[in-house]
């Protein structure tokens, strides 16, 4: 009983299906810091890829991927700060909560962009580089129309968009980096367990943030190592 009561200071009761979970002050702080501290590293990572780019197409791809990475951590941080410190700004908080969900779709599309743009694909698979952005736009429309109404459906959309584009990788003649991609996807899937565990596990959402950061780091490493090789020294 003492152990259970001790955890109550770090975790509130689980929310009902039609309501959002309300984190404790400790959880709010963890939610903010676990992504806010990654905004600058994400910007530096984008700059590094841009510097290693060989040509305009690689530079554009680095920009798209880097902005997706920065937006994920920045929007998440702003939303959690507003949710923590400005609880009276309900309309602003609601807007940033939707943006936080929307940016996940575009982050997934941006994460696939280097592989779809810089690897040789089959004729049908090549269309995926555009279709993945269509899926991101469709997911955004869903968020703005059904925000927080059907949480399991929304989760299914995220998982579908996360895994469906990977089907085209079978057409890649060069398989370098695919093991890192798979491992990063595995980390994302592990994190989903914590994403759905608010009110069950203390700091569940912050732990989800950590898994996102680890998975994004694995994917960044693969992109940096296999798609943006250092240009030969003259």
TrEMBL record:
Q: Where in the cell is it found?
A: Endomembrane system
Q: How does it sit in the membrane?
A: Multi-pass membrane protein
Q: Name one Pfam family in it.
A: HlyIII
User: What is a single molecular function from GO for this protein?
Assistant: pore-forming activity
- List residues traversing the bilayer: 30-50, 62-82, 102-118, 130-146, 155-172, 207-224
UniProt xrefs under NCBIfam families: hlyIII (TIGR01065)
Q: Which family does it belong to?
A: Belongs to the ADIPOR family.
Q: What is this protein called?
A: Monocyte to macrophage differentiation factor
Q: What is the lineage of its organism?
A: Eukaryota, Metazoa, Chordata, Craniata, Vertebrata
Q: Which gene encodes it?
A: MMD
